[in-house]
Amino acid sequence: KEVPTVFSPYLSGPMVKDRTTGFLLPKLAYASGEGFVYSQPLFIALGRSADITTTYERRGSAGSGKRAELRYVLSKHSAGTAGYYRIDTKDRQDWKFTFSHRHQPSQELYGSASAELVSSRRFYKKGEFEVEETTQVYTKSKVSASELWNSAIVSVSGVYLNYLEGSSSGIYQKTPSVNLYVMSNPVGKLPLRMFLDSDFTYFYREAGNSGYRVNIKPGVRHTFYSGSVKNTAT
Q: Could you give the CA distance from residue 183 to residue 196 in angstroms, rounded to a whole number?
């Protein structure tokens, strides 16, 4: 009935003002087939603009886990993270590497890169992960950049998919995908405005069925007012 039955005081907040190297609160979890998992993180301050968190896991009788996450800020326009997580068992090692970086030198130019590599599908079966990761069959790495002008936007992106099931039908872009969007521009002295959305890429499939793809979607828009009502025809 949403009536509190127990009241307990709590305190939240940093114990120190400065970034300080030290142990963080441990975490206790349970994984089927492995028993209780004890994780002990250690935070290491690397100056004002970078830090790394290392974690040691004791995974019941199934082995141990080791992970590290690096966070860095190069400038107010550039920052990123990198992480490595390895699970050691009696018969094998499973690992995952992640990386992401963003760079935005101005409001008109933006770029980002991300990578995810996993040793095998078994990695997701050995930890307490989200449902999306547990059912994941491939990893994705991507690089993208966008440039904004007064009347147009161009975006370039490349995607690589690595299937974890050993499938031979993996798909990836052999060349980056290029998207050009021309924003609404007047058409001479006519009461019309023109816009254009287009993209180009080349897909490659190991099992065949490769080829180019070009999409061009031009359009014309006419806007008029009926009193205080705005009417648009495209």
A: 7
> What are the φ/ψ torsions at residue 116 (nearest 5 degrees)?
-145, 120
CA distance linking residue 72 with residue 44, whole number of Å: 12
Cα separation, 72 vs 74, whole angstroms: 6
Q: Cα(191)–Cα(221) distance, rounded to whole angstroms?
A: 9
Distance CA 197, CA 126 (A): 45
Q: Can you list the positions of beta strands (E) in 61-123?
A: 64-75, 78-88, 93-103, 109-118
Q: Which residues, in sequence order, are bridge partners of residue 101?
A: 80, 113
**Each residue's pLDDT tens digit, 58-115:** 987 778 999 999 999 999 999 999 999 999 988 889 999 999 999 999 999 999 999 9
How many C-beta atoms lie closer than 10 Å to residue 82's C-beta?
16
Measured at the alpha carbon of residue 98, what is the angle toward residues 97 and 102, in degrees to the nearest 5? 155
Q: d(Cα 96, Cα 114) in Å, to the nearest integer?
A: 14
Q: Which two tokens stand for residue 135?
A: 């059912």
Do you know the residue count of the chain? 234
Amino acid at 163: Y
Q: What is the pLDDT of residues 109-123, one digit of tens each?
A: 999 999 999 988 888
